Amino acid sequence: MALALPHLGVYGGIRRFLELGEVWTRRGHEVAILVPEGSTGRPWVPFSGSILPLSALPFGGWDLLLSPDPELFLACRAPGALRVYYSVLERAPSEERALRSADVVLANSVGMRRYLARKGIRAEDAAGGVNVAFFRPPESPRRRAPVSAGPVRALVYGRVSRRRKGTWTAARAVERASVASGVPVTLTLFDAPPDGAETPRLPRSLLIPHEWVLNPTQRELADLYGETDLFVSAERRAGWCNTAAEAMACGAAVVCTRSGTEDFAVNGVTASVVRWRWSLILARAIGALLRDPGRRSALAARGRARIQEFSWERTADRIERALERNLGGRTRAQDPTPASR
Following CA atoms 276, 278, 280, 285 in sequence, which dihedral angle do they give, to the nearest 10 degrees? Predict the structure, then answer.
């Protein structure tokens, strides 16, 4: 299995392939992640497969080539391999060409499958996931009980450089809800900025206490989720919202838009889901949970139970079934290296 990626940076989309690749490697498949020259490096989550340069791709004798990057997918050549495009982001550059040239299209959420269906593309269900063994509530009770008089701890993903992530919308909503409800809130924003990027900052200071956590380790990130009472996401055009899923798995109550969360966030059941991506609307949903700690705690418990259904192992199962259906009876083209993977 050849997984072609543009880099190995600390991104949720890259996590997906490191996690899936590790599951498939443990199951006995031979898996390699291939990246452009100069991009090879140590993966930031466990991956025991191979890391190779893209130049090695034509000589591998692969059964399948899989990539989430449309332009990279179109440029890759792997003779005889089943070509699998994994759609993770709406309207990515060269998306239309990649969709039409793929043997199989995977979609990372129900929302993405619906988006592709409007284009006449039938995509296989590859929703999920989250590492539920790693992202889980802390063993020691660090999260405050609902009756605590201390401030509520809110968390927002701080990728302000990407407006579709909705960082500023979410931060303003938390501020507005705290001020309107009179419930004290401390806000934490976290990010791992790309190399060379400016240090993230908000357009203005907030009226509530807030801090940044930059470049957390994976253990520190899990601890951050585990200490959080309320996670707020205001994304748009998201395929799968990794941060909301991870926060939910760690026991935080989630307030979110529908973007990237429809598979696991059911309004009033597992999360508080708003229809419109406006800070005022988000603030109303946040305020309701600030004023009702018992409801917030119950929402978090149901959310954590739901997200267990989206482990990477289950995602790998769905993808394997889709690939097996398409690989059956397939004849490999003449290949420079006959060894099968």
Answer: 50
Task: For strands 210-214 and 50-53, give the pairing.
Answer: unpaired
331 pLDDT band (50/70/90 cuts)?
very low
- Domain check: are 229 and 319 in the same one? no
How far apart, in Å, are the Cα atoms of 37 and each of 7, 51, 214?
Answer: 10, 11, 28
322 assigned to some structural domain: yes
In a domain, 294, yes or no: yes
Domain that holds residue 30: 2-129+311-327
C-alpha–C-alpha distance, residues 292 and 132, integer Å: 27
Distance (Å, rounded) from C-alpha 293 to C-alpha 234?
A: 22
Q: What percent of the chain has pLDDT over 90?
A: 81
pTM: 0.89
Express each pLDDT in 36-47 by its tens digit: 987 766 888 999
Work out the burial of residue 250: count CB atoms within 10 Å of its CB; fewer than 13 is exposed, 13-18 middle, 19 or more buried: buried
Decide: helix, strand or coil at residue 212. Answer: strand
Residues 202, 291, single domain; the answer is yes
